[in-house]
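haha ok so turns out i had the wrong file open the whole time. this is the CORRECT one, sorry everyone. sequence first:
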Amino acid sequence: MTIRKTAVNLLKKTGTLGYARKVRTRLTARPPVRIQPRHDPTPPMQPFPEARYLFAVGAIPRLYAGRTASIFAKTKLFYELAGVKSEILTMNFSGELDDIIQAARDRGALSEGVSVVNLHDYFSQQAEFQGQPITYPIEEPGMDAVRDPDQEVYRYFENGVYRLYKRFDGVGRLIIRDYFNDNRGRVRRDEFYPSGVVRRSTFFDLHHNKPRQEVYYRADGSAYMNQWLVLEGDPLTPRVERITLFDPDGKPSEVLTSPIDLIHLYLDRVIGTDHVFLTVESRRADPEVLSYQRPNVKQLYVLHNPHIVPPFNNPKRIRPSYKQLLESSRTVGSVVFLTDAQRADAEAKYGGRDNFAVIPHAARRATLDPSITRDPNLVVMLARLDPQKRLVDAIYAFAQVVQQLPEAHLEIYGHGPDKASLEELIRKLRLENSVALRGYTNNPSRVYQSAAMSLLTSAFEGFGLVILESLSHGCPVISYDLKYGPSDIISDGVNGFLVPNGDVGALARQVIAVLTDATLRQRLSVTAPSAVEGFTPEVFMARWSAEFNRLDAQGWQ
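then structure:
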């Protein structure tokens, strides 16, 4: 069986083929609509206006990337280059947030000039826990425990019936406790503070294993919030229908009818009457913040992905998640794109706008570690393991590469839902000795310095920050010519190569061409770092300062 048939059969089995064919069919469906972008000259650096600088996000994941990393980098530059402190306001409940933030500070990713405030911590009126921490034993009277072989997870049986689940952290503190009924239906979940006090209790629908009521507790054990949920739609999805807040004495203080009301109350209390620049970088937060109109608040919205539907060649067809923002764009302070090309596409639909700004990500030339040598046969990718990144294309291309260059190898760094299907594809193509999934890395600098080149095969990007990061380390990039970003950064044949979007054969041929030409590799590597000159932190700060000053000059009503 040919490699191509093997890959197709596997993709059918794993469910990835439909997505791959859909994307590739759309990408070749018709020629792209080309619109001439306009370019704004770099403005002079100005002092940031006197105001508070807030960023609204849903959550900060433990293994964050992309959007969260860009917010951390942006706020760090604000503080280091302009002395501007920022506040990140998170909305979602998380018992791990404190630990995630401390880990980010320890790595130097999150500046000391940035504070993080969570909605739930704010409403819980969090205070220091008093007394000795509560400890929970592994053993449960009358039950027998089975430990998970890979983690501190225990499942408890009572005379053969599954009753209880417990998860402990690395130092033996209870994190989660689930209770089950006779039908193995989860009826309740408790989540804990590090002190051992219950932080949240969730009560589940007995038929659908979906939450129907959530109770949130302060460090002293008193409730500060209750949420009722109803199940709607197909598939059934919980929707909050009522929120009750409680004062420190446990008495109901306010009743709200939607999460939007709760978020508006949160923003009102955090912001008060101060002058605030409120930046939103996730479309999931748009419904809550777009409806939050206050005379002392200037709203800015940053787009991290394409706003048009695949195959990304018709600027009149807007992705549903972007419609609310773009159709409301006249009423907000700024809409910030990462590339001139994306702004041009937005203006083809909505017309020229003074509040449509372009501010690309920033990068510096990396300081290289002289102890690290490049492997002339190593190709790397840093990407989430999900369909957007089209890693099946990279793996299939590499099956062609190793037919001519058996010593070549591809290492993919990242995590995501496609891990199992990608591992199976690697096995089916017999690439176990040539392609490896390396998991999440905290040291991308070492990865890029070790490699001859990196690849980008995404279906779409908002900018492609990984391209700048790779080039800054002297690691040339071969990328699909996709929307948006690669053509703004890669000079074809100078610091890398652009190949036709979705053309796996062209991708493989270009990888082979670079791996087999040591002179070309060296030239690309030497010229790669110069690509960051148009994206320096100083240019980045000048553009952001200009946008904040433009809004400040409009007055605050």
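Confidence is low (pLDDT under 50) at residues 10-29.
again sry for the mixup
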